[in-house]
Structures are given as structure tokens and as C-alpha cells.
Amino acid sequence: MFQGRVVLITGAARGIGRAIAEAFAEERALLVLCDVRPEGLEVAKRLGALFVYADIAQALHRERFVEQATKQWGGVHVLVNNAAIAAPGSALKVGLAEWQQTLEVNLTAPMHLSALAAREMVRSGGGAIVNVASVQGLFAEQNNAAYNASKGGLVNLTRSLALDLAPMNIRVNAVAPGAIATESVLEAIQMSEDPELTRQDWEDLHALRRLGKPEEVAQAVVFLASERASFITGAILPVDGGMTASFMMAGRPV
Ligand SMILES: NC(=O)c1ccc[n+]([C@@H]2O[C@H](COP(=O)([O-])OP(=O)(O)OC[C@H]3O[C@@H](n4cnc5c(N)ncnc54)[C@H](O)[C@@H]3O)[C@@H](O)[C@H]2O)c1
Q1: Domains in the chain: boundaries
Q2: Span 3-32, pLDDT tens digits
Q3: Contacts of 181 (CB under 8 A, 6+ apart)
């Protein structure tokens, strides 16, 4: 489905980003991956992709990422804004530096990268952007103010970009995952006081009463980027096992 199409993915060294890269590789896309983790190079080698070491908090790195992609493959067709950082903490306690870094990585970088990639997509006659938001962009979690705000911003940025880029035949959508069994989530569960109970609690947040798999998010991203979603733009697709279908915590008995 993506043969000859150039797909850029941020934060592809592990977790959901790596699963997205694997899913696009199965579709024979020409991949350009970036990350600040050196493991990204191994992922890229395995998938025949180009790896660009880029810290998306830095404007110059963002520019270099898109430039190198264009230089390598001659254009850009798809951008997946996946990389993000967590920033747990109460709204009253979050430090200004941490707030700014979270907004820079989770919101400003997707905006700037989208603008840079869109310029290249225009030259190819159009393209697609998929943002990896979160259920925390739709509703807030206690003690997670900076992350909630960044993902809420990303949700409405997705709609804004969809409107502004539609005349250029560029579609922009987002996925909003629930709790997904990535390395970072499994580490957080393991580090909690009672890992078994924590895992059960997290599973019970979802109507399907389990954690999602990175591949399940990746399939939704590939769909939104594909021609099968040709009349879908400005949409926020929950990939959350029914978590946000409920006004209560979905899987819990009432
Ligand atoms: N795992 C979940 O349960 C979950 C739920 C909802 C949304 N999400 C979202 O999915 C995306 C991926 O989550 P994950 O769990 O795989 O996270 P993760 O922390 O495992 O992976 C994120 C990747 O992004 C990279 N990254 C972070 N900052 C970067 C920067 N400044 N420049 C370049 N790369 C950077 C990291 O090195 C890492 O490889 C994120 O946007 C996250 O907010 C995850």
C-alpha cells in the first residue's frame, strides 16, 4: 500500500513508534526514523530505514530530519508525530522548565514538523499526517497537568492542521491511545508498590479489560495514513479498548 511512499516517524526507537515503523515496513514504505535513543539505529537497520539522530525539542534538528529525508528519498508523503515525553505532576507543582520542555516536544515539535513536511508534501501533490495523541488529550488525568495540556493541544492542532492543509490535499488525523503495553508503561507498572494490582487497575480502565498492544495503535496509524482513509481528515480516533466510551471507568463493574 505504501510502496515508494516516504514515511517519517518520530520517536521510533521503541514502544509505539517502533511498532508504527514495523507496520509501515510491512507495507513496503521508504522509512525515515528519528529518535534521541541510539537503539533507533538498530531498528532502522533491521527495517532498511534511514535513521536520523534528532532531538525534536530543537528546531534545527527538526529541520535536519525533514531535509535528510528529502535528500535520501526525494520527497515526503507521510509524517507520524509519535515522540513525546511524560511529565507527571500536579498543576500546582509543575516547574516552568518542565512545562516548557513538555510543550516543546509534545506540541510545538509536531506543529513545526508538520509545517516542514507539508512543504515537501505539496511538491508530491499531497500527503497525510498522523499525530499520536492520547486519551489524556480528550480528558484529564489527575497529577498530569503538562502532559494533559500538551495532548489536548495536539488534538486541536490536528483539527487546525486538517483545515489549513486540506486545500493542499494533505489529510491530518490523530489516534488517541489508552494504556498500551510499551516498555515505558510496563516499567511504570513494575516500579509501582503492587505491580499485580496496578496492572489489574490499568486493565480495568478499558471496557476490553486489558492493555492495548503497540501493534494495535500502529494499525490504526497506517489506516489513517492510507488511501483507505481518503475522506477522513481532522478526526481523532480513540484506540483505547472502549475506555472513553464510558462516563465511568469503562471496565469497572457499577
Ligand atoms: N504507552 C501508552 O500507554 C500511551 C498511551 C497514550 C499515548 N501514548 C503516546 O504514544 C507515543 C509513544 O508512546 P510510548 O509509550 O511508545 O513512549 P516511549 O517513551 O516508550 O517512546 C517514545 C520515544 O520517543 C523518543 N523521544 C522522546 N523525546 C524525544 C525527542 N525530544 N526527540 C526525539 N525522540 C524523542 C524516546 O526516546 C522514545 O524512543 C507518545 O506520543 C505517547 O504520548 C502512549
Answers
A1: 6-177+233-239
A2: 999 999 999 999 999 999 999 999 999 999
A3: 211, 212, 213, 214
Residue nearest to atom 42 of ligand 1 (CA): 84
CB 247 within 8 A of CB 185: no
Please give the grid coordinates belonging to residue 245. 466510551
CB distance 36 to ligand 1 below 6 Å: yes
Model confidence at 252, pLDDT cuts 50, 70, 90, reads low
Supply the CATH classification number for the domain 6-177+233-239: 3.40.50.720
- The tens digit of pLDDT for each residue in 190-205 reads 999 999 999 999 999 9
Nearest-CA residue for ligand 1 atom 43 is: 84
Q: Is the CB of 82 under 6 A from ligand 1?
A: yes
Binding site membership of 154 for ligand 1 (Cβ less than 6 Å): no
CB atoms within 10 A of CB 140: 16
Residues belonging to the active site: 147
Give per-residue pLDDT as tens, 59-105. 999 999 999 999 999 999 999 999 999 988 999 999 999 999 999 99
What is the C-alpha to C-alpha distance for residues 72 and 68, in angstroms, rounded to an integer? 6
Q: How far is the CA of 55 from the centre of ligand 1 (A)?
A: 13
